[in-house]
Specification:
The complex is a heterodimer of chains A (108) and B (122). Chain A has 108 residues and is mainly beta. Chain A is globular and about 40 Å long. The model of chain A has no long low-confidence stretch (mean pLDDT 95). In chain A, the strands form two sheets. In chain A, strands 2, 4, 5, 8, 9 and 10 form a six-stranded mixed β-sheet that branches. In chain A, strands 1-3-7-6 form a four-stranded antiparallel β-sheet, with no helix packed on it. Chain B is mostly beta strands and 122 residues long. Helix content of chain B is 0%, strand content 54%. Chain B contains no helices and eleven strands. Classes of the chains: A mainly beta (108), B mainly beta (122). Chains A and B meet through strand 4, strand 8 and strand 9 of A and strand 5, strand 9 and strand 10 of B.
Chain lengths: 108, 122
């Protein structure tokens, strides 16, 4: 199945570490990409591949993979990190892409 | 990267069609993604650089047409037989891919357009 699932919401205290996960069978052989979306704005790429951050994305963002789970970790979360985060993966059998349902990150 | 530039908001009646444009100066594949109010991102499909190859999500097969005018660097997404649940913000995004020694090829979308709100209402 190409479906990928995310926890609907996660909270983290300011300055602490939080992990946002994305699960799916296809992730055993496919990397995901991660997107941050603040209210009223277009999504922005924050991570791709094994652990590739675009320029301009703080180094507190990191990516990892294990089995059927991809993770986006924010080490030392800041108030401006409060946003929705989406993972995306490609299904190699259908040549279709799929988004996870999104995780709302609340920074307390 | 500089955001892609999309056409403006549209209001349509049920059963009509809408055509959204996206200025994409690079010769890359381009994806279309939509987001209904308060909902998540939904992948609709992708078009190749020359405009003669498309892949559509099964949900939109038969209703969506993606096209490209290479002379003006513009990509289009047309959705027909509009319903109220097609009310959403529609985004275009540039495709990138790279080959990884462990997992093979992987993809990402960057940059995105600013989004086009399509409202379907009678």
């Amino acid at each position: 199945s190409s479906e990928v699932t995310q926890d609907p919401a996660v909270s983290v205290a300011l300055g602490q570490t939080v992990r946002i996960t994305c699960q799916g069978d296809s992730l055993r052989s496919n990397y995901v990409s991660w997107y941050q979306q603040r209210p009223g704005q277009a999504p922005v790429l924050v991570m791709s591949g094994k652990n590739n951050r675009p320029s301009g994305i703080p180094d507190r963002f990191s990516g990892s993979n294990s089995g059927n789970t991809a993770s986006l970790t924010i080490t030392g979360a800041q108030a401006e990190d409060e946003a929705d985060y989406y993972c995306n993966s490609r299904d190699s059998t259908t040549n279709h892409w799929v988004f996870g349902g999104g995780t709302k990150l609340v920074v307390l | 990267q500089v955001q892609l530039v999309q056409s403006g908001a549209e209001v349509k009646t049920p059963g009509a069609s809408v055509k959204v444009s996206c200025k994409e100066p690079a010769s890359n594949w381009v994806h279309w993604v939509r987001q209904a109010p308060g909902q998540g991102l939904e992948w609709m499909g992708v078009i190749n650089p020359s405009g003669d190859g498309t892949v559509y999500a099964q949900k939109f097969q038969g209703r969506v047409t993606m096209s490209r005018d290479t002379s003006t660097s513009t990509v289009y997404m047309e959705l027909s037989s509009l319903r109220s649940d097609d009310t959403a913000v529609y985004y275009c995004a540039r495709d990138h891919s790279r080959l990884d020694t462990d997992m093979g090829r992987y993809w990402w979308f960057d940059p995105w357009g600013q989004g086009t709100l399509v409202t379907v209402s009678s």
